[in-house]
């Protein structure tokens, strides 16, 4: 064992139930092995309020730690080993621009309900909560979009345009009842790029963000596999382009992808379109029984910013390090948005 490993094990033993380490499925093997709980965003969100631990360490990206800080009970402290582990997709939705966009869209009197993917900042979740909206994950996007459409005249789905379109396809929302906002709303003043007349007859208004990791998966790759290995199965994450999702044999959250592999018959060959750490972990787990391959190799650099070294460094000084906190003006409406999701999916 190296020094970081020794430190992590000794501190976990010393702190006992006072410490809980949570890890997302996209974490590396070297980190995930020291987590107490692993899962996708929905699973991990559900676990926060039930934990007795005083110190909760989130091995993932920053928006996940923020979500935990929003849902934490009094006396709990949320930490992340590297605060620079952000999410490019989450960064594509700035709270100020989201609020401006909602105000513009509601100028004609329509009630627009915002629904934000959990891959968003606490500030965005706060805006969504104040406008009567909620949060979704890839596991419950269908349920939550149905919920949101029942709350007003139209839904603003953000920040992931691919998850929005894939979910709309599942629900049968016609193409002519959707609109994707201009890419310019990400970095520019929405006043210059959002027009109520363009969205007046739309049921679903879509923010133009995307996940750079899942954007890399291409339809041509699937077509090549179909020709070379027609017996192979292909499953992908719904953050992929709709053309990729429609060509696959199935799509769903990381939990869905894991279950799909678990339930596949012995001897199956399965290509998976998602972050490579999870794919390689499944390949090792089922080696000799099933063949698991990446649709293409795509690694999240930000998930990779959590390492044994910075996890050990955090644990060594955890009682003196400032925890992740969300100011009350953001926390309360953001918590309301998250709780609406948890209630709708309970």
UniProtKB/TrEMBL annotation:
Pfam families per record: NadA
The protein's Enzyme Commission number: 2.5.1.72
Gene Ontology molecular functions: 4 iron, 4 sulfur cluster binding; metal ion binding; quinolinate synthetase A activity
Matches recorded under InterPro entries: NadA (IPR003473), NadA_sf (IPR036094)
Pathway noted in the entry: Cofactor biosynthesis; NAD(+) biosynthesis; quinolinate from iminoaspartate: step 1/1
Cofactor(s) named in the record: [4Fe-4S] cluster
Keywords carried by this UniProt record: 4Fe-4S, Iron, Iron-sulfur, Metal-binding, Pyridine nucleotide biosynthesis, Transferase
GO cellular component, one term: cytosol
GO biological process: 'de novo' NAD+ biosynthetic process from L-aspartate
Protein name from the UniProt record: Quinolinate synthase
